[in-house]
Amino acid sequence: MVDMPVIEAKGKRGDELVAIIKEKLAEIKSSDKIVRLKVSGVSEETLKTLPTAVLAELKQKSYSLNIQFEKEKVDESTPQFGRTSIGQIDLKFIEFLETADLKGFDKEKLKSNALRYLASSE
């Protein structure tokens, strides 16, 4: 039984991460071993881009392979895409409405509806 050192995935794409895992498994010749491997700092994007067929192949070539993916910790102080960043979008849209030629439209109603839409969670 082999407990492999933790692999840090931060900043890596799925294909890069699988290449590293493949290399590490080749080094220990996993075909006759029970192997446990922890991969830390995995982002959602990395998980989405993991070539699952290659992972399945690695598991078949090993006697027993257990890979545990641990998601990266998100820094709550950094604004993430989504609701926390809407403030800039609504200000830019209001600036746009002030300069746009909107003859025949009620600018105040457009502002009101746009702000309500941008503030909604969906």
Layout of secondary structure:
Blueprint: E1 2-3, E2 7-8, H1 14-28, E3 34-42, H2 44-48, H3 52-61, E4 64-71, H4 86-99, H5 107-119
Parallel strand pairs: 1-3, 2-3, 3-4
Helix pairs in contact: 4-5
Kindly list the characteristics that best describe this protein:
alpha/beta, four-stranded parallel β-sheet, single chain, rod-shaped, 122 residues, 5 helices
Provide structural commentary:
The termini are far apart. The chain is rod-shaped. It has 122 residues and is of the alpha/beta class. It has 2 domains: 2-71, no CATH class; 83-119. Strands 1, 2, 3 and 4 form a 4-stranded parallel β-sheet that branches. The protein has 5 helices and 4 strands, in the order ββαβααβαα.
SS-based structural class?
alpha/beta
Measured distance between first and last alpha carbons: 49 Å
What's the count of strands?
4
Q: If you average the pLDDT, what whole number results? A: 82
- Domain module count: 2
Number of helices: 5
- Tell me the series of helices and strands, N- to C-terminal: EEHEHHEHH
Radius of gyration: 24 Å
General form:
rod-shaped
State the oligomer: single chain
Q: How large is the share of residues in beta strands? A: 15-25%
Query: What composes the largest sheet?
Result: 4 strands, parallel
Which blocks of ≥5 consecutive residues have pLDDT under 50? none
Q: State the helicity in percent bands.
A: 40-55%
Task: Please summarize what this structure is.
The chain is of the alpha/beta class. The chain has two domains: 2-71, no CATH class; 83-119. It has five helices and four strands, in the order ββαβααβαα.
